[in-house]
Amino acid sequence: MEGLGRYSRQILFQPIGENGQKKLLTKKAVVVGMGALGTVISNHLVRSGVGHVRLIDRDLVELSNLQRQTLYDEEDAKRGLPKAIAAAQKLRKINSSITIEPIISDLNLENGEQLLQDFDVIIDGTDNFSTRYLLNDISVKLGIPWVFGAAVSSRGMHAVIIPGKTPCYRCLFPQVQTGLGETCDTVGVLSPITEIIGSYEAIEAIKLLVGAPHNPHLEQFDIWHNSFLQMDVSEGKNPDCPTCVHHHFEFLDRSSHQQITFAILCGRDTVQINPRNVTEFDLDALAVKLKNSGKVIANPFLLRFFPDGDISMIFFQDGRVLIHGVDDISQAKAYYSRYVGG
Questions:
Q1: Fewer CB within 10 Å: N-end or C-end of the chain?
Q2: Helix locations, 95-145, DSSP H
Q3: Nearest CA-CA partner of 230 in 200, 207, 208, 251
């Protein structure tokens, strides 16, 4: 084991100390999503000396990421590097004495348990509701604590989920969102809020790894309007929760109505996305939401949206979406998450 000198200032902090630092060096953390939150979280974990950090992400670095995704630079965007790879390259230069493991993958019900099992903590760097409910299912099923975090516009929130001890994510957010949600690609995001939320997530993960008491609150911030809300959720467990009480893992169930089906349309460079959870698009509201993010053409039956280049998205009232210009489901999921938010 490498000498502890590089962590001397952290060791001086008594709640961690030398014993806590040695414990950190034996622990394994997995960060799901290497966007704005994930880059902040992984940076802190690696500098703090967590012994094994796995980075999972399906996306590539783009120029528009650099405003807030702090591990990447213009060269990464120019080369179109996968975020997991670009992040790992930077982080290995920061701390070469620990294991940094990049995984280029879309976390889903097929691979989620395999990618997250055997880790001591899961940290949320994702940008959509459905993946968080999947993380929650896996967390409860495998008994692994996770730290939830979200940031959009000038707002953010975070909370700690410990199976068997705290309310789970489904207890706190029982109504699974359908339809449209706010995303960074539709309403924007300020870099400082991602730094704040990501830093809180990282310190809560470190507390869990050293065995220190976690924050029992759901914390919410709005840094533009200078507001802060702290809610004690320690007694918020739903006695009829489908996930942590009844162990019905809907987001790991292929037959569940919560699943979204993805199908590549043969020979058309098009992916069809069809939520099983019945939803409808308000095409007028959708046009207003998307107009600042690309060209919008609408009629009473559908809306066509052009986010960039040769990509177009066609939204139907029944909730279906066709994404033209892609033949890869992971890429289609990325566009869906950006502009639909689910």
A1: N
A2: 112-116, 129-142
A3: 200
Measured between alpha carbons, how far is 127 from 106 in angstroms, rounded to an integer?
13
Structure tokens given for 336? 């869906």
- Which of 252, 272, 307 marks a domain boundary? 252
Angle at CA 183, nearest 5°, toward 179 and 189?
A: 160
The boundaries of the domain holding residue 329 are 260-339
Catalytic residue (choose from 168, 171, 184, 241): 184
User: What's the angle, vertex CA 340, arms to CA 256 and CA 273, rounded to 5?
Assistant: 50
266 is catalytic: no
Which CATH number do you get for residue 334?
3.30.310
Asked whether the beta carbons of 119 and 93 are under 8 A apart, the reply is no
What integer pLDDT is reported at residue 1 of this predicted model? 42
- Please give the DSSP secondary-structure letter assigned to residue 264: E
Beta bridge partners of 288: none
Q: What is the DSSP letter of 212?
A: P
189 and 294 in a common domain: no
Query: For the chain, what is the mean pLDDT?
Result: 91
The per-residue pLDDT for range 141-153, each reduced to its tens digit, is 999 999 999 999 9
55 and 174 in a single domain? The answer is: yes
Same domain membership, residue 30 and residue 134: yes
Q: What is the mean pLDDT of residues 60-71?
A: 93
Do 268 and 259 contact (CB within 8 A), yes or no? no
* Domains of the chain: total: 2
Q: List all residues 6 or more positions away from 221 whose beta carbon is below 8 Å from its beta carbon.
A: 155, 156, 157, 193, 196, 197, 227, 228, 229
Q: What is the CATH number of the domain that holds 109?
A: 3.40.50.720
